[in-house]
Amino acid sequence: MPRHVLAQISEDFLSQRWSEAVTSPPDPRHRVLVAVEQSKQDYVVGFTASEPLDGVASMIELLVEPRWGRRGHGSRLLAASVDLWRADGFTEAVMWAFEQDAAMTKFLTSAGWAPDGSYRELDVDDMLVPQIRWHVSLTSEELPQSDGQAGPLDH
Question: How does 70-102 read in b/e, with b if 16+ C-beta sit within 10 Å?
């Protein structure tokens, strides 16, 4: 998103909304997982949020702060999400991603996801930003397994 759009977003509003999402989800299948970089001090460096949507698991967001990238955090978050979705009985998952996000495209492809042909454009400050929807079968044995390093955000 353009910097001027981000500058208009209230941190207090976002903080309140995230706190509500984590502490009072609409049902137990709405989840926020976090990745932590452990050093002298633990840092939350990434997260994923997902929800049930029309009978499938829907990844709302998967984000690792770029300076903490390429350390396995995204893979662990995704694998932990897959484990939870399977435990919830889901057989498929979907996620929208920005069409021009080469890193996300490479990551999802390497994790067994593929575009499903759906397309949308987000209107961000009078600029249309294209997204494509990705999907994956959760019945595939090829998906990465969790190593227990990513977990729910606890309060």
Answer: eeebbbbbbbbbbbbbeeeebeebbbbbebeee
Going across the sheet that includes 31-37, the strands are 114-124, 127-137, 92-98, 56-64, 43-53, 31-37, 151-152
Q: Closest by alpha carbon to 136, among 102, 101, 110?
A: 110
Cα–Cα distance for residue pair 151/131, rounded to 1 Å: 28
- Which CATH homologous superfamily contains domain 3-152? Gcn5-related N-acetyltransferase (GNAT) (3.40.630.30)
Mean pLDDT in the chain? 85
For the stretch 2-23, pLDDT in tens is: 677 778 888 898 889 888 888 8
Least confident window among 79-93, 112-126, 139-153: 139-153
Indicate if the pLDDT at residue 151 is higher than 50. no
Q: How far is CA 91 from the centre of its chain?
A: 17
pLDDT of the residue at 112: 92
Domain ranges of the chain: 3-152
Q: Are 143 and 93 in contact (CB under 8 A)?
A: no
